[in-house]
Amino acid sequence: MCLYRKLILLVFVMAILLSGCEPKSSGEHTSADQGSVILLSPKELKQFPENVQLIDVRTPGEYQRAHLKNAININMYGQDFLTEINKLDKNREVYLYCQVGSRSRNAAKIFQKQGFKKVYDMDGGISYWRKFNYEIETNKP
């Protein structure tokens, strides 16, 4: 019986280890009920036209210090977050970023639940954007 338990344990451990080897889904976060959020690198985001719905989901203070050109600030932690995002065109693509990627990933799920058709999330946030030395805007007096 002891050999049988060891065999079951070995099969269980192998199943866990092999499940971690599955290929990632080409830069997409998936949500069962709403499709997918497309994860973009800063380089990919930089290639999009300037008139996209680019949303900075950080706090107003963070946005004031530095933000991407043409970004709209909608604070994910603000009480009016849902009201503000629902003013946007849900049929147009929306591009999100934050400081390092966590807030925008969570915000992307909210955008999907609110009915946005195409949601893009910039990997690594503005911190990663800066590593490429891409242009940012600051509001210095």
Report on the architecture of this protein.
The chain has one domain (26-131): Oxidized Rhodanese, domain 1 (3-Layer(aba) Sandwich). With 141 residues, the protein is α/β, with parallel strands linked by helices. A 6-stranded mixed β-sheet has the order 1-2-6-5-3-4. The radius of gyration is 20 Å and the shape is globular. The chain has helices at 2-19, 42-46, 60-65, 81-85, 102-113, 125-131; strands at residues 28-31, 35-40, 53-56, 72-73, 94-97, 119-122. The chain is built from 6 helices and 6 strands, in the order αββαβαβαβαβα.
CATH architectural grouping: 3-Layer(aba) Sandwich
N-to-C CA distance: 76 Å
- Indicate the radius of gyration in whole angstroms: 20 Å
Instruction: Indicate the mean pLDDT.
Output: 82
- Describe the main β-sheet briefly: 6 strands, mixed
Overall structural domain count: 1
* Number of helical regions: 6
Shape by Cα distribution: globular
Helix content: 25-40%
In CATH terms, the superfamily is Rhodanese-like domain
Q: Would you state the CATH class?
A: Alpha Beta
Unreliable segments of 5+ consecutive residues? 12-26, 28-34
Pattern of helices and strands: HEEHEHEHEHEH
Features:
single chain, 38% helix, six-stranded mixed β-sheet, 141 residues, 6 helices, 6 strands, Oxidized Rhodanese, domain 1, alpha/beta
